[in-house]
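Board work, copied verbatim: Sushi, von Willebrand factor type A, EGF and pentraxin domain containing 1
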Amino acid sequence: LSSVCENEISCSVGSLKSVCEEEEDFNKIELLHYNKERNKRAVREYPERARMRRDLPNKRSRLTFEIVLEGSVTKKGNATQKSNEPDALITMLTTLQKEARKGNLDQRVGGRTLKFSQLTYDLDLKTYRCPEGSVLVNNTCVNCPIGTFFHVIIKRCMDCPKGTYQPEEGHNTCLRCPDNKSTDKEHAKSEQDCKALCLPGSFSPSGLEPCETCALGSYQSDYSADFCYTCSKGKTTHKRGSRREEDCEEVCPAGHASQTGLAPCTPCPLNSYQPKSGQIECIQCASEGSIPFPGSSSEQDCIYPLESMELQSDFSVKKGGGDQLRVPFSPCFDSPCENGGTCQTAKFGQYNCLCGKGYTGTNCDVVLDLCEAKPCHNGGTCLATPGGFQCLCKDGFTGTNCEVNIDECRSSPCLNKGVCIDGINSFTCNCRMPYTGTTCSSAVNDCTDAVCLNGGTCVNTPTSFKCQCPSGYTGDVCEIDVDECMSAPCQNGGSCQDLPRDYKCTCTRGYTGKSCETEIDECADSPCQNGARCEDLLDDYKCHCVGGFSGKKCEKVLTSQYQLDFVTPTILDYAELTIDQPMTTVTASFWIKTSDQVNQGTPFSYAVSDDPNAFTVTNYKNLVLMVSGEQRNVGVNLTDGVWHHVALSWSSFRGGWKAYVDGILIDEGSDLSTGKTIPGKGKFIVGQEQDTFGGGFSPGETFVGSISQLNVFDQELSWSDIGRLRFSCDSFQGNVISWSAVQAAIKGSVAQTPSYFCQDCPTPTAPRNGGVNFTDTKPGSQVDFRCDLGYSMTGKAELKCLVSGQYDGEIPECIITDCGNPGRIRNGFIKGKDFTYGKTVIAECKPGYEIHGEKTLTCTDSGFWDFDTPDCVEKQCTVPELSENTVPSTTEKRIPPGTSVTFSCKEGSALQTQHNSVKCQKDGTWDKSVPSCDEVKCSPPPPIENGEPFNSIAEYNVGDSVSYQCDYGHEFNTAVPNTRGSLACLPTGNWEPDLPVCGPVRCPDPPPIY
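↓ predict structure ↓
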């Protein structure tokens, strides 16, 4: 290429790929041009790929060169202004085209010559491309800012989603917040924006810290919740921060108590009572009173004797308020101790039974029989006695337990220096020559009695005899067989059997030969299949399988779509594997189904030589996690006969541990084997609990049920990873123990059956009076349920399909909304017995009473009646609205039957009836019309002689005054009572009686005339 590249262009071959296809072959040559100027951003310009076609008789092929030009843009310039790079490219492409026409680019492929003389290119299709992490803005590549990431598919900068952040520019991904943390919004720029998720049992508006614990009567099982579920009606929790719906318990009724005041509840014991509900103690009867039955709820049940009685009580009593003695709840309330045993309260909600003589056991339910321990040795017979036992010994033994062998040689029965050998109720004398007999009392006469044994020849001596022994024997009388095994001729652990003049070796397994000197080659018969390599072992062989095979002979094809069924509690059924590497973090995940209520089943155990409980999960009735000899009780029961997903993790750092069941964090803690390491080179047993390294199995701890997808990882899996194990069918295989490898390690009669995992869940059905929405039934898909108006849902509204082929909950029910009984109406009743949604009831009153409130009530979809329950009140008379001038003798508006009310009028008004009082009758009506006071009016004023009222009108109010005026030539007479010339309207509706008088004007006497 250097021959076709100019000074400003650096050419190289990059990403060269050869693909043989039916129609086309593709090869790429990348030509790079480097600008030596310092630049701000790099922009790649891609002209159209240069193509050249050729003709072959029967097949079309194509060779494609992709020409990549790398240029740069200055701070003030842009990509379109940089023309020198395209010019240089055109020059290079022109040269390349000339070389093609000369045949210099022809290629030999598959024995044929590919000619490229028709090489063409098109510069009009050039494009500009920015490096990943940046986008083109005004022909300049700009890095994606902090808080965003470059989406490699749509080629845009996108905000970091919730739970992630990005503190730097120009990145293709966002960083995930640490485990159990998230952000409250998108576009987070720093890890400081990651806040801790609200733990189960707490909530906040954002689901992040700061969080508030769930109040009493509510719970929350999930992380990052923004609300708490309310316990169902009649249930509550005993503390704040409850994490499970199971924490909602019914309140203990009166006469009962419990550790928390909630179910399960126990009746108050004898001689005590409890009048309140939800209590943690009962009240002892005062003054030695007694109650002969449990569960009393009233002090009135206490019976007080005439004389002092000693109360029998198994409970600790503390002084309460007043004279009350309070009995705190304890397990002794259930009277667990049998056969007269006394119950004592212990710490942590436990109890101890003090058993009477002759009984033992946790509840004094075991009859004590000391003979069961077989204390009498050497065949002695045990006789049980009150509080003990007696041994009847066989002949030859004595002692309390027949443990002493009576020494029959103590009396020295052997004579003539014979050696006495004690036996069982006997003795034997080894006599010195020449004596014989039971007690060595008889002398031997030389060789006459043929004392030489085993073919020995007797030779007389002057004082006795001498035996000449044959080969293989020795001793005074040839009584000793020479032991050819003394030289240990048998090799490799073989056992030697001495024979006359010979020996016989019984070889251990794997060896043969006269002296067990030859090891048997178990690989000689080529037992390994499917290309496996055979390794000869002692009395065994090991097949090293190639990928995809397992089994003793590598005859099995590995798969993970199976389950192991442990049918009976036998110690012979299990799977055994090994773990080579040590672990400081670990997660075990598995699916389990069992209905075993008898055994403390063990899903798996891992043991090393000095620790049988290096990593063990046992007791599916009350799950226990053990790490390096320490244990924590998870406290969950898995024996309901349905599939459950269990995941347990542990970390040496701070000893942190977590337990998930069906995706819910059931429990967690710390300080479990802190700083320790789970050693390697141990045995991992599925279905048995190891009390010793690789053994010590117990039927009571054997797993009974089905298990599948057991995988062990050497890391702590996050909550989201564990969720994927439940809902995703991707092949998750543990890197320490993988489920596909377990099937190759089965021992005994464990049934390996195909599993239904990773199959579709059943098609969901809509609940009655409700509906269902779903698009798929594959594992991980979600089904949404809804209820019709007037119906409420019991159960989960959303279910997800698990990999086990079942949903993570039961299909909910739509229960018609029930408003409940409106309540009893005093002096009335409710007509109607159906109190559910849309139904109506009618309130009726007894005779003499009437409804106050709404008579007809309708149950609404909210579960409440549309109106409050009305009252039935005694029928009364109602005082009507009165005129402002009418004054009743009482201010009450409703008057009971038999009561009278008197009415009076204010000044200026008068009654319009002949009566001024009324009486209320039984039917709620008055006996007469209610009086009313109307205002008094005066008619026009009366006329007078020689005068008239001034501006007279039709009527006047009380107190009004009217003036008179006299006719011309008249004036008011001042000698009469009314000198004012006016009249006032009196309260009686009459005018003043004294009218003004107009008389003629009288002139004085005329003046005298002078």
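Confidence is low (pLDDT under 50) at residues 17-59, 72-82, 307-322.
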